[in-house]
Amino acid sequence: MIRSEILKEIAPILRDQLVVCNIGIPSQELHAIDDQPTNFYMLGTMGLASSIGLGLALAQDKTVISIDGDGSVLTNLCTLPTIANNVADNYILMIIDNGSYGSTGDQPTYTGKKTSLAGMARAAGCENVVEVMDVDTGPALEKAIADRKMTVMVVKCDSGNAKMPVITMDPVVIKDRFMKAVSA
Amino acid sequence: MDIDKKITDDLVANDISFVTTVPCKQLAGVIEEIDNRDDIFHIPSNKEDEGMGLCAGAWMGGKRPAIIMQNTAIGVTINTLATLIQYYRMPLPMLISYRGELREPVACQVEMAVHTKALLAQMNIPTYHFHHQKDVEELDMILKYTFMCNKPVAILTDANFWGGYGDQ
User: What's the confidence (pLDDT) of residue B168?
Assistant: First the structure.
């Protein structure tokens, strides 16, 4: 499965949760598949989906799911120790690990080679790290939500992108409706 | 006057309850004071752009954030300031240790100091420079201004403000 197929499958699970979605094609895919006020789309700032999600989870009680990518986590690796040492049990970091920089032309990342993000998360001190295959994403995500225990999910899948339109919604509109959904 | 306490009191009085920090020797006292306050959640960052991401999330979660960092971090955070904090129009007070100014003992710090105000000006970031201890009296107004206009705002605090650096 490629990322867009996973997003299609888990859209009904994501719909009821606060979601912080990674820059580029992941946000375009989620936006096209199931746009929700509870989705915060990153239009720039590669790497910070996990940090924004953690800050949001620490600031309020609702479950927060950050949908991140292997390339983006690699660019902000220092996020893992911060997550590990500031436990928010309403926080799930879901890394869609397709071993490539999808938005820039599927150039390979190091996670398709020797590097294990699950291993790095564990070494950073994250206590609840699960590695799942693409087809098992839905049940694993439902379990993580139900467990109400901070979870880092590394979802291994194939490299590739669906053709989706660019998000043209104004960033302030994205933020405003998201904040209203957070406080609703 | 205890500057560290005064700064922390102003943060609390402005309902700032989520503070991320990347340390500097000059900021050690205020970071310690923040860490000791029950009404502020202190989350150390490993890198300043990461810290701004945390602050953006906290803001959207209903908390007023602030970041405390060195001016070298301006070099690290330009993209985050432009594409996250400014693009989505979020308030962010940045209490910045202005290294490389008068009374600075480390020559390399001057190399970023000479770019600091130019970069902030280029980014259209409102910028205040605390050089004398009494300048801290404006902090309360600066914080109110930041959350009024929903912008990142820089407060540069140099060695003279902090009463010298190290053995100086």
Answer: 43
Cβ–Cβ contact A58 with B under 8 A: yes
Q: CB within 8 A of B36, min separation 6: which ones? A: none
From the CA of B87, how many Å to the nearest CA of chain A? 6
Q: Which residues of A touch B43 (CB under 8 A)?
A: 55, 58, 82, 86
Kindly state whether A160 is in contact with chain B, defined as any CB-CB distance less than 8 angstroms.
no
| B35/A contact by beta carbon, under 8 A | no
ipTM of the complex: 0.97
Report angle CA B68, A91, B58 to the nearest 5 degrees.
30
For A32-52, the pLDDT digits (tens) are: 999 999 999 999 999 999 999
Q: Are A117 and A50 in contact (CB under 8 A)?
A: no
Residue B54 carries which side chain, given as an amino acid letter?
L
Domain residues of chain B, as ranges?
3-158
Domain regions of chain A by residue span: 3-183
Q: What is the pLDDT of residues A90-127, one digit of tens each?
A: 999 999 999 999 888 889 999 999 999 999 999 999 99
Q: Please state whether beta strands A91-97 and A151-156 pair in parallel, antiparallel, or not at all (unpaired).
A: parallel
Percent of the residues in chain A that have a pLDDT greater than 90, as a whole number: 95
Q: Which CATH number fits domain B3-158: 3.30.1300.10, 3.30.70.20, 3.90.79.10, 3.40.50.970?
A: 3.40.50.970
Distance from C-alpha of B135 to C-alpha of A49, rounded to nearest angstrom? 37
Residue partners of B2: CB distance under 8 A and separation at least 6: none
Beta bridge partners of B66: B19
| Eight-class DSSP state of A111 | G
Q: Which fold has domain A3-183?
A: Rossmann fold (3.40.50)
Q: Tell me: pLDDT of B167 over 50.
A: no
Identify any residues that bridge with B93 across adjacent strands, giving them in sequence order. Answer: B153
Q: What is the DSSP string of A44-90?
A: S-TT-HHHHHHHHHHHSSS-EEEEEEHHHHHHTTTHHHHHHHS--TT
Helices (H), chain A: 3-14, 25-34, 49-59, 70-75, 79-85, 117-124, 137-147, 171-183
